[in-house]
Design brief:
The protein has a 3-stranded mixed beta sheet. It starts with 31 loop residues before the first helix and ends with a helix. It folds into 2 domains: 124 residues, no CATH class; 47 residues, no CATH class. With 187 residues, it is of the alpha+beta class. The chain contains 5 helices and 3 strands, in the order ααβββααα. The longest helix is centred in the C-terminal third of the chain and has 18 residues.
């Protein structure tokens, strides 16, 4: 199983099984990285420019992990392990129910995975892509502190359901109408 730089498990053997489309991919199939950040990797940007900024993966023989700037991050709205949905209330300081969980950290000197990609066919290249999924706080803890896996058949923790329902109650309370006279009559 893959591990974090601190040695805790991330809950998967192959992060690319859970990776989605690249964050840099535009709606028309072009590479936003090459368009917006050409100075960060001039050679890559020049290559994409010659290909009319077409995404590297547009070639049928290329997969996401072959692009040097591939990145797949989550919107963190649903836990991929237990299915718990996020409930956020504006101006609420409570900790989110769903957090971004790193399966792979990208080529950052302070946090780099030590495993190899299973798709290497013996080439043994290091993973260098940031890949995140959404996990509720309870599943996040279970994955890092035990042998829990992301693809386990799990249901939401009772504490997680209680917290979500508490937030839904607060959300419904915000929908109620009361006149200014009723709200400020005490003053």
């Amino acid at each position: 199983m893959e591990r974090t730089p601190d040695g805790t498990p991330v809950g998967v053997d192959d992060p690319y099984e859970f990776a989605g489309r690249c964050d840099h991919l535009t709606g028309d199939g072009r590479c936003r990285f090459a368009l917006d950040r050409a100075g960060d990797d001039p050679e890559f940007a020049a290559e994409r420019r010659r290909a009319d900024y077409e995404c590297v993966v547009a070639d049928e023989d290329v997969d996401w992990w072959d692009c040097p700037h591939y990145r797949s991050t989550t919107d963190a709205k649903t836990c991929v392990r237990c299915g718990l949905d996020e409930v956020r209330i504006a101006h609420d300081e409570r900790r989110p129910l769903i957090e971004a969980h790193h399966l792979s950290y990208g080529e950052n000197p302070t946090n780099r995975t030590s495993g190899t990609k299973p798709h290497d066919d013996g080439e043994n290249r290091k993973q260098s892509h940031e890949i995140t999924v959404g996990l509720c706080r309870w599943c996040h803890t279970k994955v890092h502190k035990s042998f829990a896996r992301i693809d386990d058949d799990a249901s939401p923790d009772p504490e997680a359901v209680a917290e979500r329902e508490s937030r839904r109650g607060d959300e419904l309370g915000e929908l109620g109408f009361s006149t200014a006279r009723d709200r400020y009559d005490d003053e």
